[in-house]
Amino acid sequence: MTTELSVARGRGAEPRPPRRDDNDDIGSGKLSWRYRLTNLDVKVSPYLYIAPFFILFAVVGLFPLLYTAYISLFEWELGADEQPFIGIDNYTTLLADSQFWNAMVNTFSIFAISTIPQVIIAVLLAALLNTALRGRTGWRMGVLLPYVASLVALTIIFGDLFGVQYGTINNIIEFFGFDRIDWQADRWWSHVAIATMVNWRWTGYNALIVLAAMQAIPRDVYEAAWVDGASKARQFISITLPMLRPTLIFVVVTSTIGGLQIFTEPLLFSPSAGANGGATNQYQTVVLYMYQAGFQSQDLGYASAMAWVLFIVIIAIAGINFLLTRRLASSGEA
Amino acid sequence: MRYRRAGLAKVLACTAVLAAVATACGSGGSGTSSDGKVELTIATFNEFGYEELLKEYEAANPNVKVTQRKTGQAAPHHQNLFTKLGAGSGLADVEAVEEGFLSQVMAKSGQFENLKEIGPSDVREDRWLQWKVDAVTTKDDKLIGYGTDIGPLAMCYRKDMLEAAGLPSDPEGVKALFATWDSYFQAGDTYVQKTGKPWFDSAAQIFNPMHNQAETGYFDRDDKLVIETNTDKKTWDLVTGAVARGQSAKLSAWSPEWQKGFKESAFATKTCPSWMLGVIEGNAGPEHKGKWAVTAAFPGGGGNWGGSYLTVPKQGKNKAEAAKLAAWLTAPEQQIKAFKAKGTFPSQTQALISPELLNQTSEYFGGEKVGLLFSEQANKVAAAQYKGPKDGEIQDNVVSPALTSVEQGTSAEDAWKQVIEGAKKAAK
Predict the structure, then answer these.
(1) Confidence category of residue B37, pLDDT binned at 50, 70, 90
(2) B41 bridge partner residues
(3) pLDDT tens-place string over residues B222-269
(4) Interchain proximity B85–A78, CB inside 8 Å
(5) Across the interface, do B85 and A79 touch by the CB < 8 Å criterion?
(6) ipTM score of complex
(7) Would you give the DSSP letter of residue B150?
(8) Residue whose C-alpha is closest to residue B255's, from B391, B400, B418
(9) Which residues of A touch B258 (CB under 8 A)?
(10) How far is the CA of B109 from the CAs of B85, B114, B127, B350, in angstroms?
(11) Assigned superfamily of A92-328
(12) Residue B397 is nearest to which of A79, A80, A276, comparing CB atoms?
């Protein structure tokens, strides 16, 4: 556990495709039947073995995705007597909906103040955990604890910390003579509170993934650098970061997807656990608005349109992040 | 068209996952079991107190087997209800519906059985309080639910805090304070001036019962949004005025801070449906025992918050049997037993005069005869306000947040514009 956390890093690990032996030229009819069967086995079996995943994906992933696109073209109210086709009306309404754009801004704001510090802290934390610490396993497991804890329990604790009138943080702030912060009403501070919850939960998880990749970096590279007189910081920038590139791309892309779909934290941060995201929607995220439209207003068509727009946005942002990360942590490899 | 599409989706889903979850693709629900018994299911949320009653029903009707599906909270229960109404299958034979979700259910009343037709003929409407029946009767005079329990409103208050402000605090003396909304807000002003502390927990908790007392709600009987022309603006001005004068503790109901507010003695009065007594006791804790009191008065008359109905969806298999079960469960004798088991306050006129109910006291609230008190309050409810299909949504997602925003510093006029805009969007 401590040393051999391996992560697929795409080097030298590609399986070879099944090979057909072209020289095997047997003409006999009796053998030919067997030959064909073997041939079929070689050709088809691999697909059969990986089929369960793709079948499941088609059922629970692809089908809902396409069906959502279909629903988004209707005025599809849950349980209504008829669902008229309205073409792209849902999309045009959506793009003119100020609440949607407000939710989009909130999502990006929370995403930025959670994901960026999160990835940076995770890399630094991993670098610390990668040094010769006493009780290393304990520390490494420790950073994963927030991820294991129940999200609902965490939200209750954070709700107490970020309480406006009786919250612990406000009590401390007031003790030092500053004004209390309205974590609920103030848009920026509500985003900070939610981002704190997200960071608390995911930083350790990402740190552990980065740590696993760090341990896979060959020691001799560092030794060579050390011989050449490179400082620790220099080694970190010129060796560790570039060698972490595939892992960082993975971490950044998954954090992007997760960050843009943030839902539970803002839902539970709301005092009455409603999907409003604050009295003036000041921390309502896109997924929260989607949930509200779909399951409280029961306007599934509109919610589906929102899901698709968000899907496209996420793909675009994840793509940009992928390119950025590849460039930032570039090495000679590529 | 809709049915064909739903059918296709179901076939696709079912063939694909047939091996994994074969059971979900059946006819979805009950019918007759292998031993020839009629199988019924009943879906409830929270605590209805039906566990023992269902055993009793099975013993009295040996040919019936009843399964209860319980959901912890009301919101997921109703979400399931609406999803499966849309899917056309999968609901229980008897589905419980809470008052807060009733307007949405009434909008889909075509998918529920008219209990006047399929229910037992000996069930008459005078079994319940008139307003309880009216709320579940459609415009074309169909009855789609049998009433179970209600939440009649009274006023809860802190005796010691009212005394500290020089206000009367005995149950009879405070009745004058809680006679009308004007006297209530006036007493609030006195209280705030004397103590510098807030009078009530949050604006939404005051606005909603005031709104519900009005003759016309957010919609008129033709489902036209009338929020701009009904009395809501007047109510809005009264409530936001009180907020401006420091009467609100600005604690949104059900938030952790609100719960803590009871312990911190953050407010002196609370609009109080019958089931709120347990909530107050739980939140305020033993150290405030005897300090909280409840009185048989509510500003502007009476009101109701909460309570449920039993409905029979059309998609069920044994609808007549289901209606029979629902009728039996909602009879006064059974609801009194449910009241004793879980404290659900009955909606049946006969149950409201039952000695078992009238003699119930609350030790926490100074030994008050709360059974009698809420029974009186239940009879003060004037009429059921007509609720449009989007009523619940406007209340929860438009008006209540706007009131919170006023408490957070938005001007009352701006927030009102927000309300109009939001209500129009919801009603669209």
Answers:
(1) confident
(2) B67
(3) 999 999 999 999 999 999 999 999 999 999 998 888 999 999 999 999
(4) yes
(5) yes
(6) 0.80
(7) E
(8) B400
(9) 271
(10) 11, 9, 22, 28
(11) MetI-like (1.10.3720.10)
(12) A276
CA distances A182 to A107, A144, B62, B132, B256, Å, are 20, 31, 61, 41, 15
CA distance A286 to A99: 9
CB atoms A59 and B254 under 8 Å: no
Which residues have CB under 8 Å from A169's CB, separation 6+? A161, A162, A181, A183
Give the per-residue pLDDT at B125: 92
Q: What residue ranges define each of the domains in chain B, with the CATH number in brackets?
A: 2-150+307-358 (3.40.190.10), 152-305+374-427 (3.40.190.10)
CA distance A143 to chain B (A): 28
**Residues A134-157: b if buried by 16+ CB within 10 A, e if exposed:** eeeeeebeebeebeeeeeeebbee
**Residue B227 to residues B195, B238, B421: CA-CA distances in angstroms?**
36, 16, 11
Say how many residues make up chain B: 428
Residues on A contacting B at a C-beta cutoff of 8 Å: 55, 58-59, 63, 67, 78-83, 156, 159-160, 163-167, 182, 184-185, 271-276, 278-281, 292, 295-298
Task: Determine, for residues B405 and A160 on separate chains, whether the beta-carbon distance falls below 8 Å.
Answer: no
Closest CA to A262 of A202, A185, A322, A188: A202
Q: What angle do CA A324, A326, A331 make, to 5 degrees?
A: 135
- CA A258 to chain B, closest CA, distance in angstroms equals 24
At B231, which amino acid appears?
A: T
Residue A14, pLDDT above cutoff 90? no
* Pairwise CB contact (< 8 Å): A280 & B405: yes
**Phi, psi angles (nearest 5°) of residue B239:** -70, -45
What are the tens digits of pLDDT across the range B359-407? Answer: 999 999 999 999 999 999 999 998 889 998 889 889 989 999 999 999 9
d(CA B101, CA B91): 16
Give B-chain residues touching A278 at CB under 8 angstroms.
401
Question: B23 vs B140, which has greater pLDDT?
Answer: B140
Task: Choose among A164, A292, A298: nearest Cβ to B397.
Answer: A292
- At residue B147, the 3 state secondary structure works out as strand
> Distance of CA A218 to CAs A6, A36, A181, A215, Å?
13, 46, 48, 8
The answer to whether B348 and B330 are in contact (CB under 8 A) is yes
- The count of CB pairs under 8 A between chains A and B is 92
Chain A residues with CB under 8 Å of B405 CB are 185, 279-280
**A160 contacts B256? CB cut-off 8 A:** yes
B257 with A273: Cβ contact below 8 A: no
The sign of the dihedral angle between the CA atoms of B332, B333, B339, B342 is negative
E strand or H helix at B95: strand B94-98
Chain B residues close to A96, C-beta within 8 Å: none
Subunit contact B254:A295, Cβ cutoff 8 A: no
Task: Say whether A272 and B83 touch across the interface (CB within 8 A).
Answer: no
Q: Where are the domains of chain A?
A: 92-328
Cβ contacts of A55 on chain B, cutoff 8 Å: 16
What is the C-alpha to C-alpha distance for residues A96 and B10, in angstroms, rounded to an integer? 34
* Residue B185 scores a pLDDT above 70: yes
Residue A272: partners with Cβ closer than 8 Å, 6 or more residues away: B252, B253, B254, B255
- Rounded to the nearest angstrom, the minimum Cα separation between B99 and chain A is 15
Nearest CA in chain B to A166: B257
Q: How far apart are CA B252 and CA B271, in angstroms?
A: 13
